[in-house]
Write a structure and sequence with these properties.
It is built from 5 helices and 6 strands. The protein is elongated, with a radius of gyration of 39 Å. The chain is an alpha+beta fold. The longest helix is centred in the middle third of the chain and has 13 residues.
């Protein structure tokens, strides 16, 4: 039985018994402990085999070592050559911190348009929003004054280009910058 040592205030060790674990499974008829695995009519796998309840294990066949050409040997000689030539004199170097920073800045500049529209930060577009009272706004789908405004579906609830707050609702709009200068 397992025990745990607990030290009391006098620093004397007291052994307390722990709860016993689950009993080991035993075979029904002979009472021997069963190794982990399923029971077959109350017998473990070994005893079930002895009593003829399960068939004996089938021996695995092993193949002999191959003593002839492989399929790769049968390929044409030029097909067996490596696809890429190895660079014997190539030198590898790590990028410097300045080069890493330049790569990072270039990746930032190439962010997808959806991400830039979601932040209202695309350099070729201008953004605005219209606002009205919550659940009483009749002009929710009316774009701002000027031509070329489309709903910015990258901002707002469920990709619909609007959002509802405690007392107001906002509709988000965007248009290309060249359209804004033409249409007024």
């Amino acid at each position: 039985m397992n025990a745990v040592d607990i030290q009391d205030s006098n620093r004397a060790s007291v052994a307390l018994p722990l709860l016993p674990g689950p009993p080991e499974p035993r075979e029904c008829l002979c009472g021997t402990p069963v190794p982990k695995g399923p029971l077959v009519q109350g017998y473990g796998s070994g005893c079930a085999r002895k009593h003829g309840l399960t068939p004996p294990p089938i021996p695995r066949t092993r193949s002999d070592a191959q003593d002839g050409p492989t399929l790769l040997d049968l390929l044409e000689p030029d097909r067996r050559e490596p696809v890429t030539e190895t660079l014997e004199h190539a030198t590898c170097r790590q990028r410097t911190h300045g080069e890493d920073a330049a790569v990072y800045r270039a990746q930032l500049r190439r962010r997808p348009d959806e991400e830039l529209h979601a932040r209202a930060a695309h350099p070729d577009w201008e953004y605005t929003c219209t606002e009205g009272p919550r659940k009483q706004w009749d002009d929710v789908d009316r774009p701002p004054d000027g031509d070329g405004w489309v709903r910015n579906v990258h901002i707002g609830v469920r990709g619909e280009g609007w959002e509802r707050f405690d007392y107001t609702e906002e509709s988000y709009w965007m248009r290309p910058k060249d359209q804004g200068s033409e249409g007024g």
